[in-house]
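Intended use. Records like the one below are meant for learning the mapping from a protein sequence to its folded structure. Do not use them to infer anything beyond what is encoded.
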Amino acid sequence: MLLQAFSLSGVSLPLLLSVESGISKHDIIYYVCAGILTLLVLVGIAMMSKVEKAVAGNRLGAVSMLLAILLTLWYFDIFSAVECWIAMLVGTVIGIVISIKVKMIEMPQMVGLLNGFGGAASMLSGILTLIASSPQTDMFSLVTAGLAIFVGSLTFTGSVVAAGKLAKWLPQKPVILKGHQSWTILTLLLSLATVILLALPNVLASTPLKALFIILCAILSGLFGVIFSIRVGGADMPITISLLNSLSGVAGSIAGMAISDPLLVAVGAIVGASGLLLTQIMCRAMNRRLGDILLGKTSTPAIKADAKKDSSKEDDKADAATDEALTDSAPEKVLTPVEQGGRLLADAKKIIIVPGYGMALSQAQSSVKQLTSELEQAGRNVEFAIHPVAGRMPGHMNVLLAEVDIPYDKLHEMDDINEDFKDADVALVIGANDVVNPAANTAEGTPIYGMPILNVADAKNVIICNFDTQPGYAGVDNPLYDEEENTHAVLVLGDAKDSLREISEAYREACKGLEDTYRAGDTAVEDAPEKMLTPVEQSGRLLANAKKIIIVPGYGMALSQAQSSVKQLTSELEQAGRNVEIAIHPVAGRMPGHMNVLLAEVDIPYDKLHEMDDINDDFKDADVALVIGANDVVNPAANTAEGTPIYGMPILNVADAKNIIICNFDTQPGYAGVDNPLYDEEENTHAVLVLGDAKDSLRSIAEAYREACQDN
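Structure written out for the chain above:
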């Protein structure tokens, strides 16, 4: 009701004003359209708070901004200004190039730079307004123009410094100048003084004097932006980025006041308010005061954390870890950290994964997805703990994990999951440091002291996959790295992506070890061990026991360039005397003959490739149907799901095979958007899902196949 009332008032108010004050029809159209576009921007922001609607919300916001630009050009009658079109064309080209070339890991500094460009645009608006001003210009326009220069300039320079720190062009640690506080206050006061002076008639009457104070205002404000941002470091950087985003909106709103553009005022205010709200939320989550961050009170020199301040708690934890160890202490010592990690995961029932900037740096999110899928398929409970400032910008981890289709309901905020760590068998830390550093609770005088952290130390076991044992962004040593004090912690050092791959392999080996335990006992191997096997190991065993195998390639094979792996596996299977054929659906891939071309590229004989009509009846005699990146063309829903895009489409009858191995990236619907019932392993007990990149999956399955052959 409130939104409806607001919408109606936004449309009716200009009409009432037009009657009373004689506003032109031209103005009425502008005000109504501006109100509608402002509401659309608000709706877009609201949609972006929901993961499933975030992309649509982003597009709605972008379209609204484009329409706002066109509306402004029309209202101010500058459609014919060639310079505007040239500038917009150049900006569009630059934006498209950046969107293509910038990697996800570079997104935080990109956001910082875009904030800076918004501030620079507002600064230029203020400068041009003052250049065109005269002693007769009203005071409001003069003051807002000066403030636009002030806020825009400090936003620009502050954002450039923040982006430079994130991109490692500048020192990432806080930079404290001699007399830093005095310089901060001095530049702030001098900047505001120039804003006041620029509103004086005597200054406006003198062109040289006006130019001098405009330049001084821009320079002094820029210096203030540099001085306040260089001393921010560590976990406070995401808060700074959020604040600068807010300031870019404030600068735009003030610039709108200076040039009498109500649409710019409204949209700038929305950006400023939403950015400030996010900043306050993050400050509360970090137990920080915004004023302390701006004044550098949190950027104290880093010192070594005393890991022994809570020694009694650590001793209790060490005793608990010893009591709950599932293997004898002597063998544990000869295991490598990777092997220990694999064994801990194999023994665990509840696992909490904590991603951090190291995951982003090594682009390990796909490996996280693959390991998560393997763990869940084996019946383990896996959840994700997201710290509000993990990474280098708000929502950094959420974006990366959503990119690989990890369900959003698996991602939990710090306050919601912190109590669960004490019940977790394993906390798997991937490239996170400051946000899990217990020194935040004990090391007074450090940049992270008092910052709420994820309580990974409370888990029964902790696996830490970090590049090295150096302090994190805040420069504070992490006591979790002291394995003598924390006997329940395992350090796996190196690139996070490589570490996860090695741990995944060790996990499979550990699961195989559990199977061997069943072999040595009274339980039949066919009964329990199959549940202990990972999907990859199950696949290897199925292939080792098969005589007839039909491979079904799809677009996923093309996407991961896995045809060479298909060739290698096919050769190994045939050399062992197994019959291997390849089934080609006429629309597999993205063009006719797509699969034929890719398989011919790696010299798979053409007589091995069979069209759908020729091979469909053979699936019922196949021991294994191996699906590689195909979805819609094998989806049984095509036979039953009326009203869907694939209903009635002939498919390859892989469901008729005795066993099915599906190597797809995830369990999302295919190109047609129709769920595949083959992914329901409870309904299809003869199907095994091996999720992740097809090339990696095939390599892992080939290794599991060789091991299964040796066991046989």
